[in-house]
Amino acid sequence: MNSTPRGNRLHIAIFGRRNAGKSSLINALTNQDIAVVSNVPGTTTDPVYKAMEILPVGPVVMIDTAGIDDTGELGELRVRRSIEVLNKADMVLLVMDAGAGITEYEMDIAKRCQEKKLPVVAVLNKIDASPVTALQRQEAKERLGVEPVAVSALTREGISDLKIALVQAAPPSWDEQTIVGDLLNPGDVAVLVIPIDLAAPKGRLILPQVQTIRDILDHDAMAYMVKERELKECIRTLNKKPRMVITDSQAFLKADADTPPDVLLTSFSILFARYKGDLETLVAGAKSIEKLRPGDKVLIAEACSHHRMEDDIGTVKIPRWIRQIVGGDLDFHWSSGHRFPEDLAQYKLVVHCGSCMINRREMLSRIMQVQAAGVPIVNYGVCIAYVQGILRRALSPFPLIQEILDDED
Amino acid sequence: MNSTPRGNRLHIAIFGRRNAGKSSLINALTNQDIAVVSNVPGTTTDPVYKAMEILPVGPVVMIDTAGIDDTGELGELRVRRSIEVLNKADMVLLVMDAGAGITEYEMDIAKRCQEKKLPVVAVLNKIDASPVTALQRQEAKERLGVEPVAVSALTREGISDLKIALVQAAPPSWDEQTIVGDLLNPGDVAVLVIPIDLAAPKGRLILPQVQTIRDILDHDAMAYMVKERELKECIRTLNKKPRMVITDSQAFLKADADTPPDVLLTSFSILFARYKGDLETLVAGAKSIEKLRPGDKVLIAEACSHHRMEDDIGTVKIPRWIRQIVGGDLDFHWSSGHRFPEDLAQYKLVVHCGSCMINRREMLSRIMQVQAAGVPIVNYGVCIAYVQGILRRALSPFPLIQEILDDED
């Protein structure tokens, strides 16, 4: 994740008057307690670019405009600098002190964003000191054109809502997370292991396989596709080591046996957990399965209501595996479709489907909702890899996330 | 084509009483003038299996039941042999002399076929001697359950209609032509060259590419996919020669330059011309472009009415190329959707689309309709390969069809 090229990171410009609390809000979003060194106001009008990670939104660049706030006159220089920043931003975070009013400054930024079709998330900060009234919300909405999010950077109240608002307002291009291309160099060979079984659509490939091939080609690498039975022969035909072997989870053990130990090995499920959500959070969620006790409530959530098959993954297999690990029965609940149950905090774990029918944005919103309730979340793919004991090997392309499995906590 | 394993060939059992003209009908269907050696009636009750080619239906096995016609008594042996044949057939050709009536024999066969859900094509033969009346047709339909085709094996009248009826009645499994798997041995490497251009669907592959990969995997071979820029590097990574390189036509010249001369090279268009139609006929059709004269009528037929793009293939590019070869303007006509124009015989050439929206069966019916009018037919893919001078190389996996290009005629 840390190797995300800066060009792919979501660029969020943060605007606000001097006392709106921009820096403390950035700290709250990034979970960093270390204070960001404040620029001495007035000494520079250059915005500061800070690459950082907002979990689970992903890698971002915060464009901190602390130096170009409205303390000076509405000078030409300030306007020019602001426009410059707006040209470089993917979205704008407009921060206001909930205790202060909305001025021409904020309305000007909001208007410019509207003209440029830049998404804006408006924040009423410091609600610990000044609770937000319905009237204030209404006024902000009318003047800025967007519903504001009420937060306190100090108490962290509302920070989850703000992350969700960021994800939901992010521009369409932000959904374009790469599947595997960022892990490959041009000219690398990725071997894809695809078992042809009865469940595969006749004469076709399933969509994740197709998307992975395309992503590999888009990144100037090469995709070598085989059935699991031909993997050994495939590696034998190559006179250089493949960079990575990506297998269907079904064939993981066979792929593991036939992949040289120094070649990265992962599964489509792991790649898509990362592509569609936040792999780090989901791996941490998998680890929490060990801490479950008989009788704990576990929510199994599916994004769509598909036709249930015999030996269904969500209603039969996953409960069975979790029971085996816990050594007793649990209180499983199920939800499907768009809405989660109201009281998420009652669960000890949420197990979410692979989200093939929802996009990254929606899956991340769901992950954040669950996190906001203080509950760990895992998805089907990561859960299955965990209970089958293959998660560590399947995380070989992601050593930092692999370490989560070893962390004491 | 001649290497089609016998198991994949459509098995057609031909039933009929002794004088119905079964053997001459087989000769008419296969275009063979050499007489099929008749079995001496009564000497054997074993059916004779004859592998042959019915153009453009494809490779078939005719199960000739000459020895088990109804000349003997309705004996138990005859019934047993008939049932045996019905168990091995994919469909039944039931031949009657148009001048003779429909007897219990034909009705029995038709009824058994119905019970087994075997498709039946009923033929009223010898219409040169006994023209068929509307009443006879009606009677045949009522007694046998199918509309009969009236033919004369002698004059070849109705033989095209019979071929179309065969194609249309063939069982669903017959559509399952292989794309490339029959050209590969298990363990072979096929390299697929896929240019990523603006026309490619974002994050996906186009269906023919997906179907080709799947077909390769289904045949225990390996599919190595690269963009045209990486082809050279891809071949360098292999320590054995790929069996075949399959390229998008757009990248043919680059692929030709980077493929070792002793490796088979073809295009998706050529494979799909074979998969969706009859490559031999379409290549012969391409060759006939040379014989066109300015002013000749050419029909450009598309199976669907798609949105026409600028520089559209059917209305702009293909006419331009053909004009350049002919050295003058031609009288182009266009048709789209399900029906061809009535009078096909007026055209000197039919250029058909790649038939991505229709199946093999429908495309073959169309090819036969055009052939019945004595007109050559080519499809877009084969036509483009021809006018661009790459057809010979693209036919390298099909040496027998390649020879058509050299034939004097």
Automatic annotation (TrEMBL), chains A, B:
Listed GO biological process terms: tRNA methylation; tRNA wobble uridine modification
Record-annotated G domain positions: 11-126
CDD domains for the chain: Era_like
CC terms in the record's Gene Ontology section: cytoplasm
Residue ranges of domain Hydrogen maturase F dimerization in the record: 179-277
Swiss-Prot/TrEMBL keywords: GTP-binding, Nucleotide-binding
InterPro entries: FeFe-hyd_GTPase_HydF, GTP-bd, HydF_dimer, HydF_tetramer, P-loop_NTPase, Small_GTP-bd
A GO molecular-function annotation: GTP binding
Pfam families noted in UniProt: HydF_dimer, HydF_tetramer, MMR_HSR1
Domain Hydrogen maturase F tetramerization: 281-397
Protein's recorded name: Small GTP-binding protein
